[in-house]
Design a protein that fits this description.
alpha+beta, five-stranded antiparallel sheet, 5 helices, globular
């Protein structure tokens, strides 16, 4: 009986990955020491990149810095790191097509605005307003949209949150079966195996 109670208590107290649907996207979320990280695959393919949407909320009592390079897509024998934001924005500035950017923005906004449990304080919406304030050129708009969406390093005070997209170079294919692993805030966040794109 005591062993059973100990096992049940351990299961309840340990952080578990929670799955949920929102805005047509399948999310996985995990909280460790007050920091919550959730992600979903985005159906939009941009150039050679597969993208995932990430949202981070700091419910701890300490400031937390979150960086894109702390995320890794682990396939077992190999892994992928997100492409640096400046490279994605640079490609959009040089070759950005209106249709692919519109597709990405639409998919991103459908997910983020459908997530009623997240009210980002330093995320996409504030970056979007700043980036698109006075842009006329199509290529500049594509780059501005990418810069608003892409996940960037940010220091979150207690109670603050952010969101953004991570771009993985996959030769225009979906992410292969793998595990998202994040090493941040002194913790390791590891999500359940996923069969590539799981948006519905």
């Amino acid at each position: 009986m005591i062993r059973m109670l100990v096992a049940i208590t351990a299961a309840v107290c340990s952080a578990q990955v929670i799955d949920f649907e929102s805005g047509g996207l399948h999310y996985q979320t995990l909280t460790r020491n007050g920091v919550t990280i959730m992600f979903a695959h985005l159906p939009a393919q941009v150039r050679e990149y597969a993208t995932i949407q990430v949202a981070v909320s700091n419910g701890s009592s300490q400031p937390v810095t979150i960086k894109p390079e702390e995320f890794m897509w682990d396939m077992g024998l190999s892994s992928l790191r997100p492409v640096p934001a400046r490279r994605v924005v640079g490609e959009m500035l040089e070759k950005g097509g209106r249709n692919e950017v519109v597709g990405l923005v639409t998919a991103y906004e459908t997910g983020i605005y459908g997530m009623t449990q997240l009210r980002s304080t330093a995320g996409y919406e504030s970056r979007r307003r700043a980036a698109l304030a006075e842009v006329n050129s199509t290529k500049l708009k594509a780059a501005a949209a990418a810069s608003a969406i892409v996940f960037v390093a940010v220091k979150l005070a207690p109670g603050e949150s952010t969101d953004g997209a991570l771009f993985f170079s996959t030769a225009a294919k979906p992410l292969p079966k793998g595990v998202l692993r994040v090493k941040t805030a002194g913790e390791i966040f590891e999500y359940q195996p996923s069969e590539g794109l799981s948006a519905k």
